[in-house]
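User: Some background: our group keeps a shared notebook of sequences we're curious about, and every so often someone picks one and asks for a predicted structure to add to the entry. Today it's my turn. The entry only has the sequence so far, pasted here. Could you supply the structure so I can complete it?
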Amino acid sequence: MTETNNPIRVVVVDDQPLIRAGFAMVLAAQGDIEVVGEAENGADALKLLARTEADVVIMDIRMPVMDGVEATQRLTRLPDGPRVLVLTTFDTDEDAFAALQAGASGFLLKNTPPEEVVTAIRVVAGGESVVAPRVTRRLLDRFAGKLTPSAQHDERLDLLTLREREVLEQVAEGLSNSEIATRLFIAEGTVKTHFGKILTKLDLRDRVQAVIFAYDSGLVRPRS
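Assistant: Of course. Here's the predicted structure to add to the notebook entry:
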């Protein structure tokens, strides 16, 4: 995460030069964002990021040598590593789900308008995810065959209070904080407090990882 007044350092990873050039041009026009590097595949991205500090990586999924899923897995395992936004066409890139499992903070469609790309980078750099709750749920339901929930009780669930489990279940159902507050008859601020405790107790970074955990732990099941 960047400090106040420091530019958000971004690395763009895509095997198509025009895509990289387009992102670089858009981001160069922003006063608070700096493109510190480009790479044409996951392997080159890892080499670049070993010598270049970055806050956010815009990562394509399908690339030669090393795809975006493997690169994302490696980056998100690093202590204080950059946050990753994956690029996908959504309707065809099933590996977008695997990238979310790997720790990506969300995904962008390849035809995302420039202003939305800029907003997404700022949101992710600030520690949040950029996947709308219902989009996350829809993505996970669609690729349910790739889910591998634990066959045994996940002991990490025991760290949560009953109310925190209820909140996590609602998050995984694709509800916003305000919708959860209405359903559970509590204040929206209380929902935010519970969710913050959930992230801390489970050592998760954001809403996307919380939803993935809810599936992997067996707390919620994909819709048929």
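Suggested note for the entry: The longest strand covers residues 33-39. Strands lie at 8-13, 33-39, 56-60, 83-88, 107-109.
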